[in-house]
Amino acid sequence: MEMNFLFAARLLDEGHALSRKSWNNQGYIFKDDRGRMQFFDHNEPHVYQPNVEDTLADDWVETAKDSWTFVSVAHEAELVKDKLFVSYQICSKEDGVVKNNHQIDEAELSTWARCVEFDLDQTATHLNEQDIAQVRSAVSA
Hints:
By secondary structure, the chain is α+β, with helices and mostly antiparallel strands. It has 5 helices and 9 strands, in the order H-E-E-E-E-H-E-E-E-E-H-E-H-H. It has helices at 5-13, 52-56, 106-115, 120-123, 129-140, and strands spanning 17-20, 28-31, 37-40, 45-47, 60-63, 67-78, 83-94, 97-105, 117-118. Strands 8-7-6-9 form a 4-stranded mixed beta sheet. A 3-stranded antiparallel beta sheet has the order 2-3-4, with helices on one face. Strands 1-5 form a two-stranded antiparallel sheet. It starts with a helix and ends with a helix.
């Protein structure tokens, strides 16, 4: 169903991903955990600022978010401040071939959790039970 930008903005508030038909699968927009619009180009999120053409367009459609998988969790202790830092290796696949791969830290996880769907079943094939529990907890936070 095509819609105008005003209706599309309401769906963004509800956590949906949207794109314009004229974008030809170049990416989609979503709202991050701070309420800012972001554009996801199937590789990484970027701040999105709609132009006049986008705000006047009536070809906005809801779209499925990309599916990404956690492939590793790293726990690194910082000796100076006696803290533990956690980072996540995530990837997306297309037709069984890895398309994109990123290492993100815990601070970035909330933005990624809003812009993509994490395939936790596929993640379970890569991680041990402790790391799976950590990922589930971090994604649901």
